Amino acid sequence: MGSATTQALAASAQALSTATVTLDTARELFAAARAAGESAALSGALADQAADPAARQALVGRVFGTLSPEAMNLLGAVSAQRWSSADDLVDGIETLAIRAVAKTEQAGVEGELFHVIRVIAENPELELALGSRLGEPSKKSELIEKILGSSVSAGTLLITASIAEHSRGRRVRAALQEAIQVVAAERGRAVATVQTATALTDAQRQRLADSLSRSYGTAVSINEVIDRSVIGGIRVQIADDVIDGSISTRLTDLRSRLAG
């Protein structure tokens, strides 16, 4: 991610912080991301650093003029920024849509998205169907809606269906994992994925969350994965940071040293 995109994402998030949005606003932003992602000419024009920002904002008005004033204002803020690439701009609009969901939904979206990831991981045929380049994209979102139904919130369903329909070459699970981080960031927290051989007790989970919160200087929520191959100990991942205290890793390291 280039420095221009980093600054553009921060500016877009700031614009959202002062906006009044609903799930319909988020839905419109997802639709705008899809439109920009499907048109290299449109995304290229909106990300053209040589063009005057006012001209890029005028283009937003011409292309997305039927959207709500809230969505238009946010897209105008996005187009006014300097992006490192057209792909980054499309990612930025999608990120803004996910943040909008987080702003409107009550706590729980991160956990629900994590549950969706586990459902996909445990169903290879579903993952294959969602990752296929064949078929109508709308069929993928219909499949998600059929499987999840009312088991998740409307916001979680919107994020999942939108990503499934417009994955842009990404693995759906990976894109949903990124969405979890975006939702957490909007709420001023981080998310740790913890792999352990046996389920943590409530007390262990709280101690771990408190310890990680002190280390990272922000509230941390725990997503737990039971993995028998861990044997003992835990493996923790927060964004790109990995803390591996599992016995299986220690045994692997020991075998490597003995073999070397």
UniProtKB/TrEMBL annotation:
Coiled coil: none annotated. It is a peripheral membrane protein. Keywords: ATP synthesis, Cell membrane, CF(1), Hydrogen ion transport, Ion transport, Membrane, Transport. Pfam families: OSCP. It is found in: Cell membrane; Membrane. NCBIfam families: ATP_synt_delta (TIGR01145), PRK13430.1 (NF009967). HAMAP family: ATP_synth_delta_bact. This is ATP synthase subunit delta. The lineage of its organism: Bacteria, Bacillati, Actinomycetota, Actinomycetes, Micrococcales.
